[in-house]
Design brief:
two-stranded antiparallel ribbon, alpha+beta, Arc Repressor Mutant, subunit A, 81 residues
Length: 81
């Protein structure tokens, strides 16, 4: 997939926290874990280095169908990470 495709899937830790209903501190730890597993890339935005952009890696994108089939209540433990 091209980089443009990756950008369309990119989001921020704040948005992830909002969608999962989790505190931002917990998301920070979760992001560290999925980055370490090479499932997500994390990059500071050029315009504002305080803003982080998260995008799935090819390995992370491969997991999307399996994760989408799981129960709607999502926690780091239910994700297996």
């Amino acid at each position: 997939m091209s980089n443009a495709g990756n950008r369309s899937l990119a989001t921020s830790p704040r948005e992830v926290a909002k969608k999962l209903g989790m505190p931002r501190g917990a998301i920070s730890k979760l992001v560290d874990r999925v980055v370490a597993q090479r499932l997500v890339k994390c990059a500071a935005e050029k315009a504002d280095r305080r803003f982080q952009s998260l995008a799935p890696t090819p390995a992370g994108r491969e997991l999307v169908p399996a994760l989408a089939a799981r129960p709607t209540r999502t926690t780091p433990n239910s994700l297996g990470i």
